[in-house]
Design brief:
- By secondary structure, this protein is α+β, with helices and mostly antiparallel strands.
- It has a single domain, classed as Alpha-Beta Plaits, CATH 3.30.70.20.
- Helix content is 16%, strand content 25%.
- It is built from 2 helices and 7 strands, in the order βαββββαββ.
- The strands form 2 sheets. The chain has a 4-stranded antiparallel beta sheet with strand order 5-1-6-7. Strands 2-3-4 form a 3-stranded antiparallel beta sheet, with no helix packed on it.
- Strand 3 and strand 4 form a beta hairpin.
- The chain binds iron/sulfur cluster.
- It comes from Streptomyces morookaense.
- One of its GO terms (molecular function) is 4 iron, 4 sulfur cluster binding.
- InterPro entries: 3Fe4S_ferredoxin, 4Fe4S_Fe-S-bd, ET_Ferredoxin.
- Keywords: 4Fe-4S, Electron transport, Iron, Iron-sulfur, Metal-binding, Transport.
Length: 96
């Protein structure tokens, strides 16, 4: 993956596969949060929980490593990080 740090990225969670263990929240609490239903959701830049299916939020550059590690460690394989420009997944189960 070249120039990934220069591309704008966004992240979404497939709640159907989320185990609710909260690993993502430990890595990047600014981006992920567990709701009262026990599943993880992404948050908007102004801290609002985004509960629509497939909702995405931008990945702040300073948090890129934390979000990437979340996707790698996620036991449900359900954190998807993709480029905004072309929708190609760069981290997560559908990444090349
Ligand atoms: S790490 Fe994955 S499975 Fe665990 S709470 Fe976060 S999204 Fe759900």
């Amino acid at each position: 993956m070249q120039n990934e740090g220069l591309s704008e990225l966004e992240v979404w969670i497939d709640q159907d596969l989320c185990t609710g263990d909260g690993i993502c929240v430990q890595y990047a609490p600014e981006v992920f949060e567990l709701d009262i239903d026990g599943l993880a959701y992404v948050k908007s830049a102004d801290d609002e929980l985004l509960q629509d299916k497939g909702a995405t939020t931008p990945v702040p550059l300073p948090l890129l490593n934390d979000v990437r590690d979340s996707a790698k460690e996620c036991p449900g394989d359900c954190i998807h990080v993709r480029r905004v420009s072309d929708g190609v997944e760069v981290y997560g189960p559908d990444a090349e």
